[in-house]
Amino acid sequence: MKPFIRIAATAALAVALGVAFAAPAVADHPAAGHVGDTASYENIGHAVFVQTDGLSGNRIVSYDRAPDGSLTFAGSYATGGVGGQLDGSVVDHIASQGSLTYDADHSLLFAVNAGSDNVSVFGVRGDHLDRLQVIPSGGRFPVSIAVHDGLVFVLNAEAGGSIQGYGVFFGRLFPLPGTHRALGLDPTATPQFVNTPGQVAFSPDGRQLIVTTKANGNDIDVFRVGFFGTLSASPVVNAEPGTVPFAVTFDAAGNLVVAEAGTNALATFALHHDGTVVPLSSAGTGQSATCWITAIDGRFYASNAGSGSVSRFTEGAGGTLTLVDNTGTDAGTVDSAAAPDGHFLYVQTGANGVVDEYHVNGNGSLTQIGSVTVPAAVGGEGIVAI
Question: Quick check: 348 and 355 in contact, CB under 8 A?
Fold first, then answer.
């Protein structure tokens, strides 16, 4: 039985038992025949979505993506929740990767509302969004969301950190039993923005769930994912002292690629089935506050918040990393997103709420196309390109 079918069956059972309740469908600009009609949601256009993390009201700002990669404002949508700001943070208020996540299989967009401890679900039609649901995150201060084959996991950053799993069913999220895990991090560790977990992510095959703890342990935690999304009782804890593991992605071979804020470097690891990780390579950026990472066609682009730059890496045999160059951005470089065809990279910068637009050349170098200032997005984090 495919994982989604199992998860859907679990969600249906949850509804029957009355243990999971979805919020009613709501949209900023309701469109007849679409709100609540999940069959109508599909990727019918090219768009970029940016999260503002507004402390008085979080919003998703939509941009139409032209064939030349340039962006044009298309709309702004309230999430139904509020953003948050970790103590000590400046250009990235929630200090994480994956706070805005797209589920291509179901044409759904998931957004964290860190300040109200909930998650918003949007149906996506080109550059248009319909808000379908706002649901509790299962913990305090959600910062990152991972999606794989009908499973969704939310990472909560405060109160020692936790993760909560959900199944996708008819465009809604339903909490799944046996999927909540406390991370047991020190909730009093300061400064807060480097001592909260950085990201939750699935392995490419969906059988493992990875959580980075940043300076609160300097660990890469790996949970085993079982039937119906249930997790191993505790993770395999892979200590990486002093590295401050922040954001992750994967290479074509399934190796883990980690942005390390403590060493301002990228590192590759072989991820084994038993949850252990084995170091393969590491290369410094020569920049400051290396925290986020995006993969495009075997190359990696790391965002350096302290330097206002993006570092480009190539990967050789055995996961060997080589720094190629650094490209300047607007101040406070944070998260980034690549167009599905890999031709464009959109870099979110938190100092002034600007998204820089780049063409990805054949050799992987970046040529700036332009930039847009996102309304009320200073300190915001979370960007998706479809």
Answer: yes
Q: To the nearest 5 percent, what fractions of the chain are helix, strand and coil?
A: 10, 45, 45
Nearest to 86 by CA among 156, 162, 188, 158: 158
Amino acid residing at 303: S
Contacts of residue 173, defined as CB under 8 A and 6 or more positions apart, other chains included, come to: 22, 110, 119, 121, 133, 135, 152, 166, 167
Contact 280, 295 (CB under 8 A): no
181 sits in which H/E element: strand 181-182
pLDDT computed for residue 15 by the predictor: 42
Specify the pLDDT at position 52: 98
Q: Please check whether the domain covering 3-385 is classified as CATH 3.40.190.10.
A: no
Helix (H) or strand (E) holding 6: helix 3-17
- Residue 173 in this model has a pLDDT that exceeds 70: yes
- The H or E element that residue 16 is part of is helix 3-17
Residue-level pLDDT at 7 = 44
Report the alpha-carbon distance of residue 99 to residue 119 in Å, rounded.
10
| pTM metric for this prediction | 0.91
Residue 207 in tokens: 């059988």
Per DSSP, which regions of 189-244 are E strands? 199-202, 208-212, 219-224, 236-239
Lowest mean pLDDT among 35-39, 285-289, 292-296, 373-377: 35-39
Residue 203 has pLDDT above 70, yes or no: yes
In three-state secondary structure terms, 17 is: helix
- Work out the pLDDT band at 27, boundaries 50, 70, 90: very low
Determine the Cα–Cα distance for residues 81 and 75; give it in Å rounded to an integer: 18
Confidence grade of residue 360 (pLDDT, cut at 50, 70, 90)? very high
* Rg of the chain taking only CA atoms, in angstroms: 19
CB 59 within 8 A of CB 77: yes
Locate the domains of the chain by residue range. Answer: 3-385
Tokens of 271: 């991820």
Tell me, rounded to whole angstroms, the distance of Cα 357 from its chain centroid: 19
Which residues make beta-bridge pairs with 223? 209
Banded model confidence at residue 34, pLDDT cuts 50, 70, 90: very low
